[in-house]
Amino acid sequence: MTAATFNEDLMAFLAASPTPFHAVESMASRLLKAGFQRLDEADDWQLTPGDRYFVTRNDSSIIAFVYGKQELTTSGIRMVGAHTDSPCLKVKPHPELVRQGYFQLGVEVYGGALLNPWFDRDLSLAGRVSYRDGQGTLKSCLINFERPIAVIPSLAIHLDREANSKRTVNPQQHIPPVLMQVKEDAKPDFRGVLKEHLSQQGIADVDKVLDYELSFYDVQPPALVGLEQNFLASARLDNLLSCYIGLQSLLEADGEQSCLLVCNDHEEVGSASACGAQGPMLEQLLARWIPDAQLRLRAIDRSMMISADNAHAIHPNYADKHDGNHGPQINAGPVIKVNANQRYATNSETSAVFRDLCDKVDVPVQAFVTRTDLGCGSTIGPITASEVGVKTLDVGVPTFAMHSCRELGGVEDSRNLNRVLSAFFNAERIL
């Protein structure tokens, strides 16, 4: 696959994945098309070497794996981890607001979102809806309005002359999106709006909408930008970019070695959930794959996890926010992320493995260490390492504007990381 084809398909995946639910649905569809078998956690599993499987939890986390032909206790499992969630605005349970003749929805800020970029965007709404049908059965389905249905207008600078120097955003007061104009005595019913939209989607047998998990998103599609189109701009690059790269790499696995991709939800809010990296999902899957505890521990000792989550590229307008010797450049290769306080799980051995793989496939590699006087974010890497006990490395594609509603990466880096992860999955020996 050429870099151009890779980026074209990546943009299609990003556009089809406005929420973790949609991302998992899209990944499951691609896995089924490639011959992977869907497992149900409620069923008894009979796993066969040479076959390929996947399982989902909460519709928002997914683990796909190849049961390789090599003995697990000698070859181990090559693992790649990413996360499906991104900072966003989530609709509250009782969201209806009527203020000054406008119908708005109350929202919660999910994760560490940059709020200013959400103003003056064409917003739509997507997620999961749970309802009772006409026969009294509880069901859930995905919903996506697709078209722009809301906006968060900025306050004009004439009414706030210090907007460019002192304006702060109060998420309770300033963030509720505007959906339409109504009369002051109107009593909008948001669940009624959802029921009507489900009917338009072809789901007509809805007796009552019971609940939902819905997020606003920017409808502007992914795009190649720049005079030479060497940048990729899109929402949710953090971290659907890594989900896509990991998925493509797994699809390219030759089946000799056992390998696995886990994409967890809830990383942006701490990972502590049944389907998050701090939850038991991966550990439980490994226990079902290798029921004998001693054999499982031997296999884990021969295994390695590459946690893939975006890295901070050095910003030309804010270069002083980086350590002088550790400023990753866009389109200059994947980034090894290092932190002495274990905010990243990289150590010298796992880093050496990654550098060796990069050399073998002729991909440049970079390193990131945060400034010593600044705090450092984290990933699923340290969490997975501590929960499972697997040797772990943190890497990522360099990007700008992390946690904005529109982020920026390079057209070469994603394909290059894909080449390295494919080599990782297919290498005869890693450790």
Description:
The chain is α/β, with parallel strands linked by helices. The chain folds into 2 domains: 3-86 and 235-426, Aminopeptidase; 88-218, Aminopeptidase i, Domain 2, CATH 2.30.250.10. It has helices at residues 3-15, 20-33, 72-75, 163-166, 171-174, 190-200, 237-251, 281-289, 293-301, 348-360, 380-388, 413-426, and strands at residues 37-38, 52-57, 61-66, 77-83, 88-99, 102-110, 123-133, 138-144, 178-181, 206-218, 223-225, 231-234, 258-264, 304-308, 311-312, 335-337, 366-368, 391-396, 398-399, 407-410. The strands form 4 sheets. The protein has a 9-stranded mixed sheet with strand order 1-2-3-13-4-14-18-16-17, with helices on both faces. A hairpin with a 2-residue loop joins strand 5 and strand 6 (102-110). The two termini are 28 Å apart. 45% of the residues are buried.
